[in-house]
Write a structure and sequence with these properties.
Layout (H helix, E strand, L loop, with lengths): L1 H28 L16 H21 L3 H7 L8 H19 L6 E4 L3 H24 L2 H4 L2 H9 L20 H11 L3 E3 H29 L1 H9 L11
Antiparallel strand pairs: 1-2
Helix pairs in contact: 1-4, 1-7, 2-4, 2-9, 5-8, 8-9
């Protein structure tokens, strides 16, 4: 029964993540969803809006990066069973994003606005390409392991979890962090860029650059020379020719 419950919990956590990911596309792109980055009730003042939005982004950043650190994982797996550790992380990340979507205060002063039809097509193509890169990159390194489903599936079958090891498939041969690159592309590719959207893009880009440093430190500790060599050959975010 415990294995079945763990699998059900992991599946529900994954489904919530996937719905949240789809909502994020609509939220950032002002598409379809009832409340987006430029819609909904504004803050009473610009200062309050900036403060609240920065707090919401910080909550996600602290949760998402802090809970991913090995020291934190070692501590909290004393209380959270290892088979559902990743699913719980995914669940809490999704809830942090849902809080951001719900409480975000739009700041709609326009920074730039593309008017030409050709320009709109280019921006939308880049926007969807960014999110496409994100999704495809997760499948290249095992999407279901990344979001906890593989762990609960193996547990439900009574099999031990095995680490997938260090691999560099397709996109990862050109940049070390294609998922993060995809997010940066999507967050900045706005045909109409408002002040609130700029705030979102600047803070998330800054967070990504910091988070990459923390993640790479952990990867080096885990994989040593093989990752150090990879860093020398492949650029972090911008697909440049291989070095060395």
């Amino acid at each position: 029964m415990g294995r079945i419950l763990a699998f059900a919990y992991g599946t529900l956590s994954y489904l919530l993540f996937f719905v949240t990911f789809l909502y994020a596309i609509g939220f950032v792109g002002n598409l379809v969803v009832p409340k987006s980055i430029d819609s909904g009730p504004p803050a009473a003042t610009l200062t309050r809006g900036l403060i609240l939005d920065i707090i919401l982004l910080s909550i996600f950043a602290i949760q998402h990066s802090g809970m991913a650190r090995p020291a934190f994982k070692k501590w909290w797996t004393q209380y959270v069973p290892k088979p559902v550790e990743r699913s719980t992380y995914v669940l809490l990340s999704s809830l942090a994003l849902i809080l951001l979507f719900w409480q975000w205060r739009p700041i709609t002063d326009v920074v730039w606005s593309v008017q030409s039809t050709a320009g709109l097509y280019v921006f939308w193509a880049v926007f969807f390409a960014g999110f496409g890169i994100v999704l495809l990159s997760t499948f290249m390194i095992n999407h279901f392991d990344l979001f906890g489903l593989r762990q609960v599936y193996l547990y439900q079958k009574g099999e031990d979890y095995t680490d997938l090891g260090f691999r560099t498939p397709f996109f990862y041969k050109y940049v070390r962090h294609p998922i993060m690159l995809g997010f940066i592309i999507a967050f900045w590719a706005a045909p109409t860029m408002t002040l609130g959207h700029v705030l979102f893009a600047v803070v998330t880009t800054a967070y990504i650059l910091v988070a990459i440093q923390l993640e790479e430190r952990d990867i080096i500790n885990a994989h040593g020379a093989s990752y150090e060599d990879y860093r020398k050959r492949v650029s972090m975010l911008i697909p440049l020719p291989k070095r060395g």
